[in-house]
């Protein structure tokens, strides 16, 4: 019976050594084996102890940083407070905001907070905001600005200079607080734009709540004005600054001269004489400065919507030094220029066309200046040929000069009419400034919410930025 059972029993299978896997799975197997050996605490080599010590130190540091972040003094921004949102999103002041609903910053943002506290000269502000909470408009912060959070790491936004969208820090920037602050300082640096077309002029100036337009005689202003422009842009982040080189571009912008005689007659009737326009041509040592703001024209388009235009006021006129303007010295003195512009803006209040401003009948346009051909100073050959070699009398010379002057006048008139026709065609292509809600927010907010801004188009246009020395 025993022999029969042993015969019926299955033969014992031979054991073979386990085959090691190669590649990534082989490394995973080695890691699992090492982790099991470390967990048992047996047969640990010097290398194993060093690796374990490093992992423990890193874990302890992370826990400590998280604990310290709980002691942060960063303000928690309220997503339902329109006044606070307006100050952060659209005041122009630089704000570094971390999107978090925990009420405390991530370790890297806390590190940036401590580093910023050690640099009191910085004008950067920091705060925490629950970007997933609904704003007064019903959208979240990320939906409002059409942003997607990064795949890993904290979501950090930078609001500055009234840009239509905040800048978002990448994963490499949020690794440490120092790298984050360096990025914020570079990105929030104010810029002076140099528009090269009507489209870029609208984007950077005419559609903004306040814009200072500086006419220069050359492409590069004087060192004093460049330094002052940099200080103006930094000291007035809620005002946009643009420069136009009058040697390269022409601009349709007519403002009445306050020192000229008043208009005669009634506008639109026969015999009406408009006041002479002010001369806005700059000099090499001093630029001309104009302050612009959106204003209601009183007209409506075919859909019944109110058409927005611009109101302008000359702040510095270099051609008439006796004329008393808010900026008698141009923009060379940054401190007095900031005080003068602030005084004008505060006096303007919420008025569509404040006192001292002129409502422009046509939107300003920017065109490239055409080069003129130089005429050779050769004596006219027609005189001698037509006179048969004889000397012309004084009356004949006077008549010839008058005929030539009339011909030049007629040619200039035709040229003016041609330019006006070209400008009218350009103005017909939707050259209107967007609506401004409430007169309080310059079109950057929705009329009923207070947190919406003007969305800029995504079309790329040619433009320049003026670089300043630090």
List descriptors.
34% helix; 12 helices; 14 strands; five-stranded mixed β-sheet; 470 residues; Glutaredoxin; alpha+beta
Describe this structure in words.
The protein has 470 residues and is of the alpha+beta class. Among the domains are: 76-187, Glutaredoxin (3-Layer(aba) Sandwich), CATH 3.40.30; 192-260 and 275-369 and 429-466. The protein contains twelve helices and 14 strands. Strands 1-3-2-4-5 form a five-stranded mixed β-sheet, covered by helices on one side. Strand 7 (211-216), helix 9 and strand 8 form a beta-alpha-beta unit. Helix 5 packs across helix 7 (177-187) and helix 9 packs across helix 10. It is elongated. The relative contact order is 0.10. The model is unreliable at 374-378, 380-389 and 428-462 (pLDDT under 50).
Distance between the termini: 103 Å
Whole-angstrom Rg: 35 Å
Overall structural class, as computed from helix and strand content, comes to: alpha+beta
Spans of at least 5 consecutive residues with low confidence = 374-378, 380-389, 428-462
The overall pLDDT average reads 75
Question: Can you count the beta strands?
Answer: 14
Helix content: 25-40%
Shape: elongated
- Major sheet: 5 strands, mixed
Tally of separate helices: 12
Helix and strand succession?
HHHEHEHEHEEHEHEHEEEEHEEHHE
Cross-sheet strand order for the largest sheet: 1-3-2-4-5
Relative strand content: 15-25%
What is the fold's blueprint, element by element?
Layout: H1 2-8, H2 23-40, H3 46-69, E1 76-77, H4 82-90, E2 95-99, H5 107-117, E3 125-129, H6 141-144, E4 155-159, E5 167-168, H7 177-187, E6 192-195, H8 198-206, E7 211-216, H9 223-235, E8 240-245, E9 249-251, E10 288-300, E11 306-316, H10 334-348, E12 358-359, E13 366-368, H11 382-387, H12 394-427, E14 463-466
Parallel strand pairs: 1-3, 2-3, 7-8
Antiparallel strand pairs: 2-4, 4-5, 6-14, 7-10, 9-13, 10-11, 11-12
Helix pairs in contact: 3-5, 5-7, 9-10
């Amino acid at each position: 019976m025993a022999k029969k059972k042993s015969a019926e029993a299955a033969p014992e299978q031979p054991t073979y050594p386990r085959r090691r896997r190669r590649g990534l799975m082989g490394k995973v197997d080695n890691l699992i084996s090492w982790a099991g050996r470390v967990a048992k605490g047996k047969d640990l080599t010097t290398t194993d102890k060093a690796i374990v010590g490093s992992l423990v130190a890193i874990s302890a540091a992370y826990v400590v940083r998280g604990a310290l972040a709980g002691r942060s003094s960063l303000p928690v921004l309220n997503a339902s407070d329109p006044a606070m949102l307006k100050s952060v999103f659209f005041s122009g002041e630089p704000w570094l905001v971390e999107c978090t609903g925990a009420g405390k910053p991530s370790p890297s943002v806390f590190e940036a907070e401590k580093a910023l506290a050690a640099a009191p000269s910085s004008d950067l502000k920091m705060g925490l905001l629950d970007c997933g909470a609904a704003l007064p408009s019903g959208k979240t912060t990320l939906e409002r600005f059409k942003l997607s959070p990064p795949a890993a790491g904290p979501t950090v936004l930078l609001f500055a200079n009234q840009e239509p969208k905040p800048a978002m820090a990448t994963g490499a920037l949020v690794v440490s607080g120092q790298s984050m602050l360096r990025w914020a300082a570079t990105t929030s640096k104010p810029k002076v734009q140099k528009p090269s077309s009507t489209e870029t002029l609208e984007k950077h100036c005419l559609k903004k709540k306040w814009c200072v337009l500086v006419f220069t005689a050359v492409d590069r202003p004087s060192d004093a004005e460049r330094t002052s422009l940099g200080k103006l842009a930094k000291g007035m982040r809620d005002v946009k600054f643009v420069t136009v080189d009058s040697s390269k571009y022409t601009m349709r912008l007519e403002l009445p001269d306050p020192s000229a005689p008043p208009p005669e007659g009634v506008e639109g009737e026969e015999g009406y004489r408009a006041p002479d326009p002010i001369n806005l041509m700059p000099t090499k040592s001093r630029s001309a400065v104009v302050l612009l703001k959106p204003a209601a024209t009183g007209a409506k388009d075919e859909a019944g919507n109110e058409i927005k235009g611009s109101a302008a006021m000359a702040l510095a006129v270099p051609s008439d030094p006796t004329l008393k303007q808010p900026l008698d010295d141009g923009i060379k003195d940054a401190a007095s220029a900031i005080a003068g512009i602030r005084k004008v803006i505060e006096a303007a209040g919420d008025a569509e066309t404040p006192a001292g401003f002129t409502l422009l009948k046509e939107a300003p346009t920017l065109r490239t200046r055409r080069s003129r051909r130089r005429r050779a100073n050769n004596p006219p050959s027609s005189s001698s040929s037509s006179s048969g070699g004889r000397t012309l009398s004084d009356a004949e010379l006077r008549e010839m000069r008058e005929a030539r002057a009339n011909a030049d006048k007629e040619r200039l008139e035709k040229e003016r009419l041609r330019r006006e026709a070209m400008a009218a065609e350009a103005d017909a292509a939707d050259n209107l400034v967007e609506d401004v809600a409430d007169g309080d927010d310059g079109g950057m907010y929705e009329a009923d919410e207070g947190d919406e801004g003007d969305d800029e188009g995504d079309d790329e246009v040619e433009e320049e930025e003026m670089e300043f020395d630090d």
